[in-house]
Specification:
The complex is a heterodimer. Chain A contains 12 helices and 5 strands. By secondary structure, chain A is of the alpha+beta class. In chain A, α6 packs antiparallel against α7 and α11 runs antiparallel to α12. Chain B is elongated, with a radius of gyration of 15 Å. The chains are: A alpha+beta, B mainly alpha. At the A-B interface, α3 and α5 of A face α2 of B.
């Protein structure tokens, strides 16, 4: 790319045809005076004095400075300059909006639609000072500026802005603006000369101090919240470690010790799986004596431990373990026990229970060879009494039939009486 | 108008400076009395509009 002077942009131009560039790092406002001074080869203070004089005489200094700010390019300035350029868009938006607001204020003042110089300008100064102070303590996104440990240590970064040189100077300017605005307001209203207005003075000072200290309080609060969050995370990690040690690691140790007994190993694994699932799903620790769902799961676990095999229990809803529910539980336990005894090796046993306020339904399915209930001898009371008879005595119903894919399905249903 | 991308910053700057120039011309022709109290807001508004357009353009381009 070639610039209008015929010099490639990426090649340093000779000293004689060097363009004037702003130097924001070395400047007080936008680096216009510093850039001109660097180009001309004089002390920047001389250029600054010239601009101030021009501004005082006719305002032309301000106009020229503003135009130079807009149109002069920014010079290369190392890491600080790079940071400045990265934030340049935001600064321009803030500066542009500020100038438009200032323009509107000046126009309103010229038209006479004005409250009072003694109110508006101190308020503007206080707002700018407060914004500077807030900016140093609160990040651009509203987050607290805290040290990022993931960043390399050699990256220059204002982790503690209040302690950094630039941050300190900006905070100082902000504090000075707020205090100056407060004093300006008091002076313009005559409060500094009249002892009777001491209350007003105190109120204004308190407001000014509040503006200054509010970011500190904000930062303190955010720090405490961050510390609390970190403490909670640390406790959760410790709790997770302790739980894994007490459950999974202990079970793994038992599995190693009993490796020669596959049935027991499988039982241990199933028990651990149940416990871990309950913990991961954060199920409330309902006691088996209070809830049908918990009691059913406990009964299935007990059968699984005593007879081996896998029993998958799925429950929908829940209800208290009243006598009717206890009857369903007893019948379901018997069905699960039978399935584990006679079809435990054929595959997992499924127990599905749906418990509503009006109805309880339980299905127990196995993958065994199946059987004919009518062919069961009279002296065997398991199905006939413990399942069918028990359900009928409580007004319910039990059905034993062949499963769709083989095996046996026991269906238990009971209409609940509303109290 | 032949499909060239429009430079919003130049557009805003051009319109703002044309407006400022028109005010100054009217003042020179004694059509209006442009005192400093009115000139200052016009100049700051011009600079503010250009800065704002540049800032918005830059932030959208990031």
């Amino acid at each position: 790319m070639i610039d209008p002077m015929g010099v490639p942009a990426n090649v340093a131009a000779p000293t004689g045809v060097r363009r004037i560039r702003r130097d924001p790092d070395g400047g007080l406002v936008a680096g216009v005076c510093a850039g001109i001074a660097e180009r001309v080869g004089i002390d920047p203070i001389i250029v600054r004095l010239a601009f101030v004089a021009a501004a005082l005489f006719s305002g032309a200094g301000l106009v020229v400075y503003a135009l130079a700010w807009i149109f002069l390019p920014v010079g290369e300035g190392g890491t600080v300059g790079a940071r400045f350029r990265a934030r340049r868009g935001s600064l321009e938006i803030v500066g542009g909006a500020g100038l438009l607001v200032l323009s509107a204020a000046l126009l309103l003042r010229a038209l006479g639609w004005w409250v009072s110089d003694a109110v508006v300008w101190p308020a503007v100064a206080a707002a700018v000072g407060g914004a500077l102070i807030w900016r140093q303590f609160i990040g651009p996104s509203g987050d607290l500026a805290v040290a990022d440990e993931s960043r390399p240590a050699d990256v220059e970064r204002p982790a503690a802005p209040f302690l950094g040189g630039g941050g300190l100077s900006k905070v100082g300017v902000g504090v000075a603006l707020v205090l100056g605005a407060a004093l300006m307001f008091l002076w313009a209203n005559g409060a500094l000369n009249a002892a009777g207005d001491a209350v007003l003075a105190a109120v204004v000072v308190v407001v000014a101090l509040g503006l200054i200290l509010a970011p500190l309080w904000w930062r303190l609060g955010r720090s405490l919240a961050a510390e609390r969050g970190e403490r909670i995370r640390s406790q959760e990690r410790a709790e997770l470690g302790a739980h894994l040690h007490d459950s999974v690691l202990q079970t793994l140790a038992l599995v190693q010790r009993r490796a020669e007994n596959p049935r027991e190993v499988a039982s241990l694994a199933r028990r651990q799986e149940r416990e871990l699932r309950a913990w991961l799903l954060d199920r409330p620790s309902t006691r088996a004596g209070e809830s049908l769902a918990a009691a059913l799961e406990a009964a299935a676990a007990e059968v699984e431990d005593s007879h081996g095999g896998a029993i998958e229990v799925v429950t929908v809803g829940d209800c208290p373990l009243d006598p009717d529910a206890a009857a369903v539980l007893g019948a379901a336990r018997e069905a699960i026990l039978n399935a584990a005894k006679f079809a435990g090796d054929a595959g997992p046993i499924d127990a599905f229970a749906e418990m509503g306020p009006e109805r309880i339904e339980v299905f127990v399915r196995d993958r065994g060879a199946g059987f004919d209930p009518d062919a069961v001898p009279e002296d065997r009371q398991g199905v006939r009494e413990s399942i069918i008879g028990r359900m009928e005595r409580h007004g319910g119903r039990a059905a034993v039939r062949a499963g769709a894919g083989g095996g046996t399905e026991v269906e238990l249903s009971l209409e609940r009486v509303r109290t | 108008m032949s499909g060239r991308p429009r430079d919003a910053v130049s557009l805003v700057a051009g319109v703002a400076i044309i407006g400022l120039g028109a005010l100054l011309l009217l003042d020179s022709l004694h059509e209006i009395d442009l005192r400093f109290a009115y000139l200052a807001p016009a100049v700051t508004a011009t600079a503010g509009a250009i800065l704002l357009a540049r800032g918005l353009s830059r932030s959208r381009g990031r």
